[in-house]
Amino acid sequence: MRIVFYCQHVLGVGHMFRSLEIVKALKDHEVILVTGGAEVDFDPPANMTRIQLPGLMMDAKFTRFIPLEEGAEVDEVLVRRLRLFKEIMAEYQPDIFMVELFPFGRKKFRFELLPILKKVRKGEYGKCKSVCSVRDILVEKNDMKRQVERVHGYLNPNFDHVLVHSDPNLVRLDETFPGVEGIVPEVHYTGYVARKPDPAETQRLAAELNLGDTPLVVVSVGGGHIGRDLLRGALAASPILNETHPHRLAVFTGPYAEEDEFERLQAIASAHPHITLKRFTKRFLAYLDLARLSVSLGGYNTTMNLLATNTFGLMYPFLQNREQNMRARRIEEKGGLKVITQDDLGPERLAGLMRESLDRQAAPLNLNLDGGPNSARILEEIHAAM
Length: 386
Known about the structure:
This protein is of the alpha/beta class and 386 residues long. It has helices spanning 14-25, 74-92, 110-121, 144-158, 199-209, 228-244, 259-270, 284-290, 300-309, 323-333, 347-357, 371-384; strands at 2-7, 30-35, 48-52, 56-58, 65-67, 96-100, 129-135, 161-165, 186-189, 216-220, 248-252, 275-278, 293-296, 313-315, 338-339. A 7-stranded parallel beta sheet has the order 3-2-1-6-7-8-9, with helices on both faces. Strands 12-11-10-13-14-15 form a 6-stranded parallel beta sheet, sandwiched between helices. The chain is globular and about 65 Å long. This is Glycosyltransferase family protein. Pfam families: Glyco_tran_28_C (PF04101). InterPro entries: Glyco_trans_28_C (IPR007235). It comes from Pseudodesulfovibrio karagichevae.
């Protein structure tokens, strides 16, 4: 089976890494991952070919495109992207065309997705099924009636299946998308897409860090476009905590943290031998597996990492939309983490919360975290039925 998988990230890196976990689960199949956001450092799976479209990001309000090529004009980039995209589809003639998030989100990218989807429907790329891959919680809109009509208008004529990467025991799609009953393509719940820790990798990291009995606290903010206040709060709280509870603090600012802010945080960290600060690590899951406590934003992937490693977390949800807060609050109710707010980020207050949380155990939630393998199985069944 050959799959062309389109994934466009515009703010964080969660969409990319969730998609990569699905690609890894499709290890017996050929996957062409078509991306179009900022570069992300990762080790590509052996079964995957990555093709990067001319880069686009969006402004903070998600209203306009920002070309990633210096001096490039937006309209020219859009033309080049669509031309290359059509060439990719014509060359690879996939059995499955899978699209991450659209049309539940990424509506600005319909300029390139709708022409491709319509060509798939006409059979111009051979016998091919179109599949939408969507997370558990969708961003709220001011006019949900119009949003539902828009999604139905793009989804129903162009897609055959929808994969929802959620466990309905925690969050159902209809809780944030009231138009589920009007969806024509078959909807499948896959469970949450969560990478499982590798015990050997965790052991190697433990030997390198030489922690002994010293607890490890991991601080992270995903891609690094947001979360500056959390990073600053944790760096100020850690020395206070260290006076009574010696620990090691590993801070990850995210690959997209601004250079001047990274240098400012690095200067703070370097004054304290128990603190290390990096932009990014490919071994983040091993760090969490070793950690006694996580302090983080509440993105999908970070949350799944906590659940997969059974690590207790202080979680500071990004409040621009409901996604992170809703998911975090649900898990907090079940004892899996504690939600913190802006009022908790003062050094003394955060140090106290970290102190209380160091000895807390995350309650087992018994959620389905096999979204990667389940997605692969569903796609195989779709292909077999073609």
